[in-house]
């Protein structure tokens, strides 16, 4: 029997009230299922609702309508159960600059009740993985943007989450750094069957990493499927054409 | 009794908060340097005034109601020694005029010699003159001290077996100048001390985009807030400790400079300006209440502010204005001297109650009931603002 999906949403809707009269529909009746071990990419232009969807799934926002089930639990009822088992790497995530790379990892893991000795073991492995072992005792304030991003990725992994939500994980990293992050995610997915939900603007990254993608536009999930299937379905040369066609409505699909 | 155990998650949160502050040199220096600087500077400033004030003259009023020769003799001698006694002008007033000046607090120094002064000296070998001093004025205090010493000399030198007693009343109704200064300084520095930490810890986390990841850790927001408040209290305790070190430095400065003066003046100034070390626990306790209250208000502001700089600016503005009002009222007389709406406004300011606690204890009129009442007001105010802060911290908009 196949496992239940680790993420399941039903008509998930989020409306923000701007003042007394104005409402903004950030997410509109999204139905989505993500299987265990899947790398799922969320694509969409700025303001499409990608970040709102992730925030709803980790309980930072409360749905206006609909339901979100993560790891079998309702996000509005069992959020602590979910939070113990998921990690979030937010878009433009900041880092504690006065702490060292290792401290950033260990302190974050400490919030999850993991014993200190175990945290240090995991930190050793992760700092090796992202290539920052030699700089582990340096305060992060002196790090480049790319190095900080690597620390953040390692920080998300230290709790060994069942699901990782990553909002544009390679934004701001140099090519080599982005490659390390991508390889790390790939390894986690292939070897450890890690479930990863990531948003990105890099369509090559989606093609390389994601088992399936969902395309969001103006709060609605307009298409969902494997990258190759979408290309075939829309007779597009590549995923970029699929994305552009769906979002702009321009005829970029092949005849 | 079971001591509540700190959960490991709260421990990590505390460790992170404190480590970050310890690594931030300016923030740490603020907690250590600012109380030390404030007190050492004030000590230096006041001790400078102490030595300078003996060179400046003051206006003195006198009333001689004595029907015998000794009152006139004393006034004649004082008039003759005007310059050495640092009297700029010696003005005779009636007892009614003197009483009126005392009543409306406009008198600087008023020497009152009663009608039976000579008779008492001659019949009992003892009598008494009264000197009213506005102790808020440094020059008045100096001149009065000199007149008092001189009065002893005049009467006791001429008739050795006769002893004049001088009764001194101060018209500043509460605490000494030193205590008033302590109150003002402790208040002003305490309300501002938590501001950088509180602003960094809430508005700063949002500004640096670290808040979102923090809010998804498996801790309730109330626990996160609680850990941050606890860290704030621990850090501001450091501030309180250095306030005490600063007070000791302050006392040392005053004693050092006063020691250059004649012994009587030195004692007078030391008593007037130094902070009684026995009152330090009270200062520490009241400061703790003020810091706690400032943290509560600061959290509310910080959870609403756009960024750390705005949070600090608004916090300082919101806290400084009422603190200046109550602090300056403490210098000009009683904090309770105003009635009506202004009086109510002053009493509504939580820090007023810390000042009232200090004043009432220093002037010896405090009762357990009144102290508990004022402490409860401060605590209630703090709890109210912490609750508002917690509610604001729970909002979805905190991350946007």
Give an overview of the whole structure.
The complex is a heterodimer of chains A (255) and B (400). Chain A has helices spanning 50-57, 79-83, 101-110, 116-129, 145-157, 175-192, 203-209, 227-233, 239-248; strands spanning 7-18, 22-34, 39-43, 65-70, 73-74, 86-89, 163-167, 195-199, 212-217, 220-225. Chain A has 255 residues and is an alpha/beta fold. Chain A has two domains: 1-85 and 162-172 and 189-255, 3-Layer(aba) Sandwich (Rossmann fold), CATH 3.40.50.300; 95-160, no CATH class. Chain A has a six-stranded mixed β-sheet with strand order 6-7-8-3-9-10, with helices on both faces. In chain A, strands 2-1-4-5 form a four-stranded antiparallel β-sheet. Chain B has 400 residues and is an alpha/beta fold. Chain B is 69% helix and 8% strand. Chain B is built from 16 helices and five strands. Chain B has helices at 8-23, 25-53, 69-80, 95-103, 117-124, 138-158, 177-192, 195-207, 211-215, 221-258, 263-273, 280-304, 308-332, 340-348, 350-362, 368-393; strands at residues 58-64, 87-92, 109-113, 126-133, 163-170. Chain B has a five-stranded mixed β-sheet with strand order 2-1-3-4-5, sandwiched between helices. In chain B, helix 3 links the parallel strand 1 (58-64) and strand 2 (87-92). The longest helix of chain B has 38 residues, at 221-258. The model of chain B is unreliable at 157-163 (pLDDT under 50). Chain A binds chain B through residues 55, 58-62, 80, 83-84, 86-90, 92-99, 103, 107-108, 110-113, 139, 155, and chain B through 8-9, 11-13, 15-16, 19-20, 23-24, 205, 208-210, 212-220, 396, 399.
SSE topology:
The complex is a heterodimer of chains A (255) and B (400).
Chain A: E1 7-18, E2 22-34, E3 39-43, H1 50-57, E4 65-70, E5 73-74, H2 79-83, E6 86-89, H3 101-110, H4 116-129, H5 145-157, E7 163-167, H6 175-192, E8 195-199, H7 203-209, E9 212-217, E10 220-225, H8 227-233, H9 239-248
Parallel strand pairs in A: 3-8, 3-9, 6-7, 7-8
Antiparallel strand pairs in A: 1-2, 1-4, 4-5, 9-10
Chain B: H1 8-23, H2 25-53, E1 58-64, H3 69-80, E2 87-92, H4 95-103, E3 109-113, H5 117-124, E4 126-133, H6 138-158, E5 163-170, H7 177-192, H8 195-207, H9 211-215, H10 221-258, H11 263-273, H12 280-304, H13 308-332, H14 340-348, H15 350-362, H16 368-393
Parallel strand pairs in B: 1-2, 1-3, 4-5
Antiparallel strand pairs in B: 3-4
């Amino acid at each position: 029997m196949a496992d239940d999906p680790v993420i399941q949403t039903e008509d998930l809707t989020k409306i923000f009230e701007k003042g007394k009269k104005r409402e903004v529909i950030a997410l509109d009746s999204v139905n989505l299922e993500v299987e265990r071990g899947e790398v799922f990419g969320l694509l969409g232009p700025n303001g499409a609702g990608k970040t709102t969807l992730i925030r709803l799934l980790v309980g930072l926002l409360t749905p206006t309508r609909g339901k979100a089930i993560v790891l079998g639990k309702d996000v509005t009822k069992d959020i602590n159960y979910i939070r113990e088992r998921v990690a979030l790497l937010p878009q433009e995530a900041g880092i504690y600059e006065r702490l060292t790379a290792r401290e950033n990892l260990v302190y974050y893991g400490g919030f999850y009740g993991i014993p200190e000795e175990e945290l240090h073991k995991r930190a050793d492995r992760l700092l090796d993985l992202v290539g920052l072992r030699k700089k582990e005792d340096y305060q992060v304030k002196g790090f480049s943007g790319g190095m900080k991003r690597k620390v953040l990725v390692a920080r998300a992994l230290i709790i060994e989450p069942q699901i990782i939500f990553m909002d544009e994980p390679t934004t701001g990293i140099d090519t080599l750094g982005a490659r390390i992050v991508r390889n790390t995610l790939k390894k986690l997915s292939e070897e450890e069957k890690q479930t990863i939900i990531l948003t990105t603007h890099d369509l090559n990254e989606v093609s390389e990493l994601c088992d399936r993608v969902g395309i969001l536009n103006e709060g609605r999930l307009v298409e969902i499927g494997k990258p190759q299937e979408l290309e075939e379905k829309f007779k597009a040369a590549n995923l970029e054409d699929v994305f552009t066609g769906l979002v702009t409505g321009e005829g970029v699909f092949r005849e | 009794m079971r001591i509540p155990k700190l959960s490991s998650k709260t421990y990590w949160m505390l460790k992170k908060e404190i480590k970050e502050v310890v690594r931030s040199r300016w923030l740490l220096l603020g907690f250590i340097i600012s109380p030390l600087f404030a007190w050492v500077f004030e000590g230096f400033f006041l001790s400078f005034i102490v030595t300078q004030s003996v060179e400046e003259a003051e206006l003195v009023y006198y009333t001689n109601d004595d029907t015998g020769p000794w009152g006139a003799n004393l006034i004649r001698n004082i008039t003759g020694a005007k310059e050495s006694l640092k009297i700029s002008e010696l003005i005779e007033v009636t007892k009614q005029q003197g009483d009126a000046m005392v009543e409306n607090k406009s008198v600087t120094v008023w020497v009152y010699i009663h009608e039976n002064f000579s008779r008492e000296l001659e019949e009992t070998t003892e009598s008494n003159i009264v000197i009213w001093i506005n102790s808020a004025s440094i020059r008045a205090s100096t001149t009065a001290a000199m007149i008092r010493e001189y009065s002893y000399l005049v009467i006791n030198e001429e008739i050795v077996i006769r002893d004049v007693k001088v009764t001194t009343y101060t018209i500043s109704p509460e605490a000494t100048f030193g205590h008033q200064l302590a109150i003002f300084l402790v208040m002003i520095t305490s309300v501002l001390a938590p501001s950088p930490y509180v602003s960094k810890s809430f508005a700063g986390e949002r500004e640096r985009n670290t808040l979102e990841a923090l809010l998804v850790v498996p801790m309730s927001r109330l626990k996160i807030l609680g850990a941050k408040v606890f860290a704030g209290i621990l850090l501001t305790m450091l501030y309180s400790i250095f306030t005490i070190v600063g007070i000791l430095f302050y006392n040392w400065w005053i004693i050092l400079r006063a020691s250059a003066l004649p012994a009587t003046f030195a004692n007078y100034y030391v008593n007037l300006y130094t902070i009684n070390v026995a009152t330090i626990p009270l200062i520490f306790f009241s400061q703790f209440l003020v810091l706690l209250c400032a943290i509560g208000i600061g959290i509310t502001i910080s959870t609403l502010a756009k960024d750390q700089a705005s949070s600090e600016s608004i916090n300082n503005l919101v806290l400084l204005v009422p603190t200046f009002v109550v602090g300056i009222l403490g210098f000009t007389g009683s904090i309770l001297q105003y009635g009506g709406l202004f009086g109510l406004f002053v009493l509504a300011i939580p820090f007023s109650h810390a000042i009232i606690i200090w004043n009432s204890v220093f002037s010896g009129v405090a009762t357990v009931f009144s102290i508990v009442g004022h402490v409860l007001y401060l605590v209630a105010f703090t709890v109210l603002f912490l609750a508002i802060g917690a509610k604001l911290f729970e909002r979805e908009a905190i991350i946007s």
